[in-house]
Amino acid sequence: MPPTTTTPLHPAPVAENSATRKLTKAALQQEKAERAIKVAKKQLGDPYVWGATGPGAFDCSGLVQFAWRKAGVKLPRTTWAMLRHAKKRVSLSHLKPGDLIFTSGGGHVGMYLGHRKVISAPHSGAVVSVDRLNAYWRGSFLTAVRPGV
């Protein structure tokens, strides 16, 4: 008679250390940021309308709120509320795709796409567009935040 082996019905849990949790959280953050960027890019050419939250028309905070909501992250409605509730602030030199960039006074926000590009709904008479992270964004930079996961 051959020897029998038993396989446990429930495998033992794998120990998770802080490095694994950070990696997992970072990977989830990146995945959600990529989704938010994809959604925002689909809005290119949509008109700016003050107070609009899409679909079809947006103001600056409405665009980033809409994109991140589709990625599973809830953001406050206005730029000022986004700033008040931000948990992770980042500098211009540490921007990652998906980060929100706020200009002086906190009245305008865009989403960093990477490669020194920003997507935003800029102002009345304009459409959702991609801009270089140029003198305007750098010169009026207030802060940037990384939406949480």
Automatic annotation (TrEMBL):
Location of the region described as Disordered in the Swiss-Prot/TrEMBL record: 1-21
Family classification: Belongs to the peptidase C40 family.
Name assigned to this protein: C40 family peptidase
Stretches assigned to the NlpC/P60 domain: 30-148
Superkingdom to which the source organism belongs: Bacteria
Keyword RNA-binding: no
Species the sequence originates in: Microbispora hainanensis
Alphabetical keyword list: Hydrolase, Protease, Thiol protease
Alphabetized PROSITE patterns for the sequence: NLPC_P60 (PS51935)
